[in-house]
Amino acid sequence: MEETDINKKPSFWTLENIIKTTTAIIAILGFIYGVYQFLIQNERQYRQKIYEAQLQLYNDVIDLSSLIATTSYDSVETKLALENSRRFDEFYYGKMTLFEDTAVERAMINYKTMKDDFMAQRPIVKTRDLQHVCLQLGYACRNSLQKTWGLQLEELKRNK
């Protein structure tokens, strides 16, 4: 009987070892979860900054395009009108390329083409034409923001 006790190895699964192993596993899982939460929070903050920058840029572009679209035909050559047109071109060739989706890009192209004709006082473009493409740009920006933010905004209905 003494020989069997000597050859017998102590079991790893003692209560003390089970508690130590469980504690280590819980600590490791807690650490992994903490890292995961940190990464998720950083991504949320990054996306939030992007979303806010996009919203601000779209607001600036819509404000500027509406100023141009409400410029009277005989005021096109004023310093203010020319400055607004130049500022729109800065957005068009600059910051908007960072945030616009294809629908906004298309609306920007349509607006710029119409704006340039309007500012050159070409008779084929009337104020209402420019205002129409301005609205289309606004709708495109709104739809883009809906997609970006994952929102469903109520459809706007206008009396024409």
Describe the structure.
There is one protein chain. The protein is mainly α. The protein has a domain at 48-149. 76% of the residues lie in helices and 0% in strands. It has helices at 2-7, 15-69, 79-93, 96-99, 102-119, 127-149. Helix 2 (15-69) runs antiparallel to helix 3, helix 2 runs antiparallel to helix 6 (127-149) and helix 5 runs antiparallel to helix 6 (127-149). It is rod-shaped and about 105 Å long. The mean pLDDT is 88.
Helix content: over 70%
- Fraction in beta strands: under 5%
Ends apart, CA distance between termini = 103 Å
Give, in order, the helices and strands: HHHHHH
Largest sheet: none
- Low-confidence regions: none
Average pLDDT figure: 88
Instruction: Please tally the helical runs, counting DSSP H or I stretches of 4 or more residues.
Output: 6
- The outline comes out as rod-shaped
What integer value in Å does the Rg equal? 31 Å
| Structural class by secondary-structure content | mainly alpha
Number of strands: 0
